Batch of 2 targets.
Target 1
Amino acid sequence: MADDESLELRAAWVPLRPWTLVALPVVLLGLSSLVSGRLVLLLVAVAGLVLGLVVQLLFSWSRNRQGPVMVLDRAGLEVRGHPRVSWADVEKVVVSTFQVRGSRALSWLTTLQNGVVVSFVPRPGVRMPPPPGGLKHELSSWESVRQARYGTNLTVVPSFFNASARRIARAAHHLGSIPVQDDTKQ
């Protein structure tokens, strides 16, 4: 943690997996355009890649300029735009793995084929805020799935943010004396 008194989660600038997936066709298109002598194909491919990267960077910048999407400190945790949750209302933090079923192409494009999720499980009767990230409508429609799968509405997929699962769990334990259950080692 930066100052041992808080952890600020911000959106990751550029998830790398989608860009490595996009770079392969661009390289192949570039090689074929060099062989065939059609440089227009190469220019179109590179322009598309650069445009996509610029859009991703602008999206990340716009989310981060509003401040952190989630803060963990001595008083509890706060998801931007929602009331603070006291550590006394958090029963445990669970770190687990998940696997996206269905389209492999979609899971690769979203960096979510296999990953880690950090779940903040509340004490009975406590309502947790939705996950951080700014996709309020999309995330709210998955609330019942998160409740059934993880026992909470507040889940964090670290690959989308600037902190690892281990760092998030360690911050919750250090700042709020919250027990951490690591299901990734099973």
Target 2
Amino acid sequence: MRALLLSMLLLVTVLLVYSAVAEGEDGMRSQTNEAGASISDYIRGMSP
């Protein structure tokens, strides 16, 4: 029973950390979108 509780606590902790890191206001998803937009603008600005 104790092992089950510890594993559930670990799982909840991992999920909370992931949501804070990946989907927070300044999370990875937001930074990836901003980086993609700036790279896209740079490529569009290149002259052939």
